[in-house]
Amino acid sequence: MASAEMNELHRSIGTLRHHIVTLKLQYGDVDAVRRMTNDLDRLEIDLHDFEQSPPPVLRAPVGKDDVVYVPDSKSDESAWLGAQDEGLGFHSRERTK
Fold it and tell me: Which of 24, 49, 53, 88 is most deeply buried (CB count within 10 A of its CB)?
């Protein structure tokens, strides 16, 4: 992940921590505030772990060269003779007995 995204995550965690401290000052050490503090601590730990050992980067999005064009024109139906058409919801030919 680019450092700009990491910096933004750290900034967001700092902002959340500030707001949670404000809630704690206003409402005291209630269960909901403790849970939010715990969640934020966990998020901070996970971000640190991610930075220390980042997972492999996923394959880049599909490029124009990777796209396969499939024409809308009718294909050679003889290629499908004898093929099962179960589950398609219709039968294009008479059923065999």
Answer: 24
Residue 66: what are its φ and ψ, rounded to 5°? -85, -10
Question: Measured between alpha carbons, how far is residue 84 from residues 67, 87, 88, 91, 95 in Å?
Answer: 28, 9, 10, 10, 11
pTM as predicted: 0.56
| Section 28-41 average pLDDT | 96
For residue 77, the 8-state DSSP code is G
Place of tokens 């901070």: 44
Cα–Cα distance, 21 to 27 (Å, whole number): 10
Tokens 């065999």 found at:
96
φ/ψ of residue 95, rounded to 5: -70, 145
Does residue 28 come out as left (phi exceeding 0), alpha (psi in the -120 to 50 range) or beta?
left
